[in-house]
Amino acid sequence: MGEQAENVTSADSAGRWLARDRDAGRDSADRAVLTGLLADIRDRVLNAARLRPGHDVLDLGAGTGLLTHAAARVVAPAGSVIAVDRSAAALAEIRTNEARIRPVVGDACHLPIADATFDRVVARSVLIYLPDLRAALREVARVLRPEGLLSAFEPVNAGRRHDANLDGVTPDEIEAIDRLRRLSSPSAGPMMAFDVAPFVDAALHAGFSTPTVGETTVTERLSTRAHVDAHLSRRPHPGAASPVDLITRHLGADTTARYVTAWYRALDKAVDRGGITFTNPVVYLTAYLGTRRYGHG
Q1: How deeply is 141 buried, as exposed, middle or buried, from its count of CB atoms within 10 A (0-12, 13-18, 19+)?
Q2: What are phi and psi of 86, to 5 degrees?
Q3: Residue 287's closest CA among 159, 138, 126, 64?
Q4: pLDDT for the residue 34
Q5: Phi and psi dihedrals of 81, rounded to 5?
Q6: Which helix (H) or strand (E) holds 281?
Q7: Which of 169, 157, 175, 171 has the alpha carbon at shortest distance from 220?
Q8: Nearest to 154 by CA among 241, 237, 249, 242
């Protein structure tokens, strides 16, 4: 397929990825680490949103409701949370026994929401998938009430690095593999292009004040062969093929075998330092609609 994307990213594939593929091959310890990381991200996004009882909140790209349920508890009893996502399958996982939670199937760039509906918009790992940040943030600004607030978490995937020395795979092969991964789905390009500067530009054009940006790094470690196998066999994001499937399809089984072996060798050399380490820069973003900052309100 050359430069064509491997799979067409669909709303249903996103739902399946959240429910199944994201955790594929993880052992209990690995799942616990991921759960803890997601809880920390949730809490930081919601704390930065300064939610209060009575607020009306949009959870943009809500997925299975990581932010939705926690936000609903804070804004109770009079506030509400609308969870918007393209995936009906993901939204079906959200508990709707509380009247203040309402799932809505919709696109971030064309929200099926009236103007000036929300006090807050929250998002986690959503903006990176959008090819048109300006359109998305214009929509966020449209549905926010005056002086409303956007609070978001996003990874900066172009800065993701690992410390594995993949002996046995040539630099040209590594570049070819990296290129395949950059083209592995329709959303892979926006995911790699997302950075603070384009976000700030889009926010300012949408009418937000200069965003506040908090930068940090998320670390992941592969400490066993099972972890390596899971990493190479897991779909990295909705619509994408796993590295093993991608390489086999385009570069052949021999290249795949040498690639996997190179990871095993790198792991053997990394035992003393606890395994192969990945680092990924991430950002926490807040932006107010208009120029006034919140004091007490």
Answers
A1: buried
A2: -75, -20
A3: 138
A4: 85
A5: -130, 125
A6: strand 276-288
A7: 157
A8: 237
Q: What residue numbers bound the domain in which 103 lies?
A: 11-288
Q: What is the pLDDT of residue 1?
A: 31
Tokens 């807050």 sit on residue: 120
Cα separation, 213 vs 200, whole angstroms: 9
Per-residue pLDDT at 103: 95
Q: Cα(288)–Cα(179) distance, rounded to whole angstroms?
A: 37
Interatomic CA distance for residues 104 and 237, integer angstroms: 22
272 vs 51: CA distance, rounded Å: 45
Query: What is the count of structural domains for the chain?
Result: 1
The neighbour count for residue 191, using CB atoms within 10 Å, is 22
Residues of the chain with confidence (pLDDT) below 50: 1-9, 291-297
Q: What is the pLDDT of residue 226?
A: 94
Q: How many helices (H) and strands (E) does the chain have?
A: 11, 8
CA distance 282 to 207: 24
**Distance between CA 195 and CA 188 in Å, rounded?**
14
Q: b/e map of 261-282 (b: 16 or more CB within 10 Å)? A: ebbeebbeebeeeebbbbebbb
The helix (run of H) or strand (run of E) holding residue 83 is: strand 80-85
Q: Is the dihedral of CA 121, 23, 91, 108 positive or negative?
A: positive
Q: How many CB atoms lie within 10 A of CB 29?
A: 11
Closest CA to 286 of 206, 200, 179, 187: 200
CATH number where 70 lies? 3.40.50.150
